[in-house]
Amino acid sequence: MITFFLQMRRTIRVLWSLLKDEETRGIAGVTAVVLLSGTLFYANVEHFSYLDALYFSFTTLTTIGYGDIYPVTAVGKIFTMAYSIIGLGIMASFLAVVVKKFEKIRFKK
Question: pTM of this prediction?
Answer without folding.
Answer: 0.78
